[in-house]
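From the shared-data thread, chain only:
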Amino acid sequence: MRLFVLYQGETLESQPGYHDGFQRLKAEGVLSDYQAIPYSGFARIHGWPALWNEAERLVRAAGSDTVFLQFFEPQGHIPDLAMGIARLRACPACLTIFTSTGDGYTMWLKPIPDSFRIASRLADLNFMTQIGRPAQELARLGTKNIVLMPNGACQKRFSAPLDQNTYLPEFDVVFVGNSKRSRMGFSSSSLIGFWRDRLVNKLSKRFGRRFGLFGKRWEGNRSWQGPVPYNQQHEAMRRSRVLIGGHPGILNDYYTSDRTFIALASGIPLVDYWVPGIECFFGNGAEWWLGRTFDQMIAQVETLLEKPQKELLQIGNAVRREVLEHHTQYHRCKLMVEIACRYRETKLAGKQPEPPDLPFLRFPLASGSIAGLPIINWQG
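Structure, as tokens:
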């Protein structure tokens, strides 16, 4: 496969895990060529017409046979998007095109951006971090071959091991996340802010100074330790015995933020909020702990804190290895390339592609889960 990527971001280093992932795949011989442009930064400097010109030039010069439109969900409108995709599709190498989303979406409070609606409808394959009503709506409007592809931990930024010789936790439980207080009224941001405030208030009341709160705009909370840069999340997480995730705000089937995988890669056991289907990723009650309410999550934290520190580290280190071996952005790149390559080869052979296997689904759905199928509107 000769791959061309249009990345969301100002530079290639805006997506270091994906850029490194595709570079590794080229070094491994999985990709015979890899070219990329960060579309946000290029279009801001040169304009959208110049972006499509440069993208077409690179695709033709490299003989790219596959194009990846990564996270085509920016704020604002992408001019001439359908025309730009058509120009790439018309290049001589019989292009296969696939897309992806990263954020979670809802039907009303945070709808899928028009740019992804257009791109996904024109693409051959579409990888999404959630399956639910927004994905079903896309299928109803003509998007085909929607495949679940969860977020992953960036292997470039979150692979450093936990030094157990210097590990001296200051807190029993840590939450890392910014306050989402919003003046926008009834919006996705304001709803997430409401849930985060509720969780943080419960944790502060229950654990007091044994609770470490990291992030922006938590002034006035006695547990607040200040903001933490995105790349330094592990430093904050490793000051605790147990981690707790926040309400994701969006409960579409299988959806998890990249922060979930970042937390699991820290080596500290994680308690997280249950979303339909995510029990398929890791062993619930063995590798991570899921609660359907904040009170259930806090009870899970208290149960974990009863365990000896050595056992907590063993649990955390085991799931950390699992993440680094199967759930990084490199692994997501590899799986998308494998699926796209198999799809392309089958099509070129005049056959109907079968729905792909998804190896990150390690466990069957739990009893009572309402999650839907992880592949929607597969037409091959």
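The radius of gyration is 21 Å.
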